[in-house]
């Protein structure tokens, strides 16, 4: 079963690409095998509507897929890293494009 984080960004594409490269290089231990980052694509109308439900204006979207299921408990950590690199105001991270994931949404 695939486990995906849907990462919506309001930044311009060049800035999204730069942030993804930074994320991948700073955390190669996670993003070389355990978690795979998809290509960046324009947000579809459906994805824009989903993001708007969370009060976010999505321009671009990329997925982070769990590739090593033993690493799946680290998914909140990965979401936090994405938010740190992008800035929380510039990214919305959704688990399976349905539930917001981030530091303020972690259970204790």
Gyration radius over CA? 13 Å
Helix content: 25-40%
Summed up, the helix count is 4
The count of strands amounts to 6
Strand content: 15-25%
Low-confidence stretches: 104-108
Which geometry do the CA atoms define?
Answer: globular
Largest pleated sheet: 6 strands, antiparallel
- Element order: H for helix, E for strand: EHHEEHEHEE
The overall average pLDDT, rounded, is 92
Alpha-carbon distance between the termini? 26 Å
Structural class: alpha+beta
Quickly describe the structure.
With 108 residues, the chain is of the alpha+beta class. Helix content is 35%, strand content 23%.
Structural description of this entry:
Residues about 105-108 have low confidence and may be disordered. About 35% of the residues lie in helices and about 25% in strands. With about 110 residues, it is α+β, with helices and mostly antiparallel strands. Helix 1 (about 15-25) crosses helix 4. Strands 1, 2, 3, 4, 5 and 6 form a 6-stranded antiparallel β-sheet that branches.
List the keywords:
single chain; disordered C terminus; 108 residues; alpha+beta
Outline the fold blueprint:
Elements: E1 4-9, H1 13-26, H2 28-31, E2 35-37, E3 41-42, H3 45-52, E4 60-66, H4 75-86, E5 91-95, E6 99-100
Antiparallel strand pairs: 1-4, 1-5, 2-4, 3-4, 5-6
Helix pairs in contact: 1-4
